[in-house]
Amino acid sequence: xxxxxxxxxxxxxxxxxxxxxxxxxxxxxxxxxxxxxxxxxxxxxxxxxxxxxxxxxxxxxxxxxxxxxxxxxxxxxxxxxxxxxxxxxxxxxxxxxxxxxxxxxxxxxxxxxxxxxxxxxxxxxxxxxxxxxxxxxxxxxxxxxxxxxxxxxxxxxxxxxxxxxxxxxx
Length: 170
Known about the structure:
Layout: E1 2-6, H1 12-16, H2 25-28, H3 31-37, E2 42-54, E3 61-74, H4 77-80, E4 88-96, H5 105-120, E5 126-132, H6 136-144, E6 148-154, E7 162-168
Parallel strand pairs: 4-5
Antiparallel strand pairs: 1-2, 2-3, 3-4, 5-7, 6-7
């Protein structure tokens, strides 16, 4: 099960320990770089994964929760990106820790995301992101989970041109 939680100063050190896969650094940046942008209109969110493991001796379930990922929500996204509307919420710097990739957790985050946003930020009508043209696995993830390709590109990305995708909310 995936649980999303706004990062606070008390759990920031946990976020700092997340590791970006080397091949994803050019798209996401380091945790130090990402966390430097958090604050104000940019909300850092932690991704937790709870696993249930059955204890074979006692038939009781043990619950374990691990921090497995991170992303930023940008409430002022439209002020920086002319393709975004005032009621768009930006989705940035999404990552699953390198030690937890390949387990379907990113898909779980995509499924939990709309409810998390609608509960906390009902004033926003769409979740908008850009994804590098070369980051095909990320684009595929978003498209398979309800995001729509605007058929436009953002040319201001630090690692090159990016697709503009959005997810209708509500």
